[in-house]
């Protein structure tokens, strides 16, 4: 298994290679390894409260897990208090791993946070549920759940 330093180096290299507007990107497995090794790392779940309640959520230490909705349910309207809520749970130097369903909203969250002074923002590739399979179901192709990482179902 790679060290935290090696994981962060790889994540930052992805950021440079892909010209990401935030520090970088980690796989679900890399994210979990960082969380296990580094108590200061925080996972920020940007899915809606409904998604976390009805689909499930990561099962990690509470001190390393926070929920700040990127968009609100119902309606999908962007959360106007996103940055204020983020400021309540993390300082600007905190390494932040943003998670959503499939890795899209978390990219937007990482970008916005970076634009506002959070300089250690990483997107968790594939998200919690991952991509849809040929039958339209998630959790079968990739993502946190498919990787066998700890999560609690609804």
From TrEMBL:
Residues 37-140 form the Rhodanese domain. This is Rhodanese-like domain protein. PROSITE patterns: RHODANESE_3. InterPro entries: Rhodanese-like_dom, Rhodanese-like_dom_sf. It comes from Collimonas pratensis.
């Amino acid at each position: 298994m790679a060290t935290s330093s090696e994981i962060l180096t790889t994540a930052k290299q992805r950021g440079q290679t892909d010209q990401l507007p935030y520090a970088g990107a980690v796989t679900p497995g890399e994210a979990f390894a960082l969380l296990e090794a580094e108590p200061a790392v925080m996972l920020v779940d940007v899915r809606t409260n409904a998604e976390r309640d009805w689909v499930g959520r990561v099962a990690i230490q509470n001190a390393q897990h926070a929920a700040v909705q990127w968009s609100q349910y119902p309606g999908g309207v962007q959360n106007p208090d996103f940055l204020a809520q983020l400021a309540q749970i993390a300082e600007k130097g905190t390494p932040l791993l943003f998670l959503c369903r499939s890795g899209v909203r978390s990219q937007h969250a990482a970008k916005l946070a970076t634009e506002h002074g959070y300089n250690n923002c990483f997107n968790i590739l594939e998200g919690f549920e991952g991509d849809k399979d040929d039958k339209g179901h998630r959790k079968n192709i990739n993502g946190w759940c498919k990787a066998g990482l700890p999560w609690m179902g609804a």
